[in-house]
Design goal:
membrane; mainly alpha; Zn_peptidase_2; 3-stranded mixed β-sheet; transmembrane; single chain
Length: 232
């Protein structure tokens, strides 16, 4: 089996372009929906606290985080971190983000299997991320001498690719939980719900593109490895 690196390289560049476009579209959508005030008048912080309370979660704090689009749930210290604008904002975008991050807190509280799997991979990948780029570079440079370094690098990179694909169901499930709750709770109107859903869809697409890009990069290194083996 032999992969041609040229088509893979083209795919990598195409995915880089798509990634840039989706990031631009995501920022554009959030800026647009951030200007639409919620009829409920709730801030992102209030929405997050209400969603946690409705799910019986009392050991998770909602805190403000610096930056833009830096929102995340930290299972280590059980905090829902909302960017400064989302934390105080009363908009469709804030409702989408706040409820989505609380969706991760609900996953954690209910022992959602894919989140547990992803969380279990984090400590291992933290170490891998430090050394993997250097191992891959060394593997390519030493390919004529030994195929082992590149083989090790590919094995490590495959873990990061797996992680990016495991992330997909986690993110989609958190959005599903968020949209169902804000609709059922009456946090948003029909129009605001459509905006929140659209914003979360574009956010999810960033993870989809990242996963495909990671797979394309993995295939690129595999093509180099297979080409080196064929020349031996």
């Amino acid at each position: 089996m032999h992969f041609s690196s040229s088509p893979v390289m083209i795919l990598i560049f195409v995915m880089m372009g798509i990634s840039w476009l989706i990031q631009w579209r995501l920022r554009s959508k959030f800026s647009e929906y951030a200007k639409v005030g919620l009829q409920s008048g709730l801030t992102g912080r209030q929405i997050a606290e209400l969603m946690l309370a409705d799910h019986g979660i009392t050991d998770v704090r909602v805190i403000s985080a610096e930056g833009r689009l830096t929102d995340h749930y930290n299972p280590a210290d059980k905090t829902v971190n909302l960017s400064e604008s989302v934390y105080e904002e009363r908009s469709a975008a804030a409702a989408a983000v706040a409820s989505h991050e609380c969706g991760h807190a609900v996953q954690h509280a209910t022992a959602y299997s894919m989140l547990q799997f992803r969380s279990a991979m984090v400590p291992m990948l933290s170490g891998v991320a430090t050394y993997m780029p250097w191992i891959l570079i060394a593997g390519v440079l030493l390919l004529r001498t030994s195929m082992i370094p590149l083989g090790v690098g590919i094995a490590l990179f495959s873990l990061t690719t797996l992680f990016s694909f495991v992330t997909l169901p986690v993110e989609f499930d958190a959005s599903r939980r968020a949209l169902a709750w804000i609709d059922k709770r009456g946090i948003v109107t029909t129009q605001e719900h459509a905006m929140a859903k659209d914003a979360l869809w574009w956010a999810a697409m960033t993870y989809v593109v990242a996963a495909i890009s990671s797979l394309a990069t993995l295939l690129y290194y595999v093509s180099i490895f297979m080409g080196g083996r064929d020349r031996r």
